[in-house]
Amino acid sequence: MKHIGIVVPSFHIPSETFVVTEINALVKAGHKVSVITFENLNTSANLDSSVNVIIIKKSFSAAAKFAMSKPLVALNAAKIAFRFTSISAMSLLGYGLNIAEIIKRHGISHIHCHFMHAPLAYSIVASKIAGISVSSIGHGHDVYVNDTDLKLKLSLCDFSVAVCKDMAQKLSNYKVGKVELLHCGVDLSLFSSTPNRLHESVKLLFIGRLVEKKGLQFLLPAIKKLSKKYAICLDIVGEGPLMNDLKFLCEELGLDKDVRFLGRRTPLWLSKNTSNYSALVAPFCVSSNGDRDTGPVVLKEAMASGIPVLTTKLMGAKEIVNDSVGFKCEPSSIIGLETILTQFCELNPYERYAKGINAKRLVANKFNASSQAKKLSSWVQNS
Predict the structure, then answer these.
(1) Closest CA to 347 of 363, 323, 317
(2) 373, CA 20 to 30 Å: which among 2, 18, 56, 66?
(3) Whether residue 12 has a cis bond before it, omega within 30° of 0
């Protein structure tokens, strides 16, 4: 089994649970896995103890030594580096040679890069220098906003992974490279709580960064419109640049008593507490700069907790959620959110419970991290 080097810009980011979940699943599938990162932020309590976290350090002496030992390889890498327009060739070679040195020193035989922006360019150059295979996986901003040199990157990867059908279609439209579809999986062992929501009131949960693409600016007015008819409360888990704006909007709408801002919570807190809510609400939209959520793991984690989900028909959300597990509406629509909130509130407690049970089954059948890792493993082994 190949030793896989997982490249991420920073490690670990608490909101990027899909990275740690994938790593652990690959380890269970039989791979040795190392994390290669530019910035080591903190330790993940859930990360398998066998995984080594390696920091990329730009050392000109190490890079020069490596280049001198294999001048022809370095020359070919330089030819690739000069094809990129968004990053200087010197930067690509500097970091590329250092990552290649890491690859050789630790015996890594495949590079898999999360996100398709700058770190992927460095990873591609490094893989060509080291003579190993390389793959990438897109997530959102890196495909729909910061997509410079994306066609070139796809052409130089052994394969590239899209996390939803819409993304797979976009990447395939470049007509270069090999594109695979793989939804991010969920570690089902972390979501074993028994749902307990057989009550009339509606207690909603939102989880995510407080940014435009999450759609809270549309959700709060929808809740306000229904507040006289239904008892709805909302807990918002997460932080972000729109925190103060959203708090002000709540005050302006008179929702101070119905909406709580809980700030950041750990993955352990979420796995233990999500099942206490009536439903997860995720009003995703496309932000003004084109950014969007593509294959939202938060939906699958909520479903694994056994609660229904209320979301929009955007990107991967429409592939994850069907009528048996929740409701969907058009993005950026207060009226649409009002409609699906009404539909959910009109359900009796048992009907809500049944949707939650269906959600738990659906995740186990279609989005199990172990099954997803086996697919990724087979692509890595054949690359």
Answers:
(1) 323
(2) 56
(3) yes
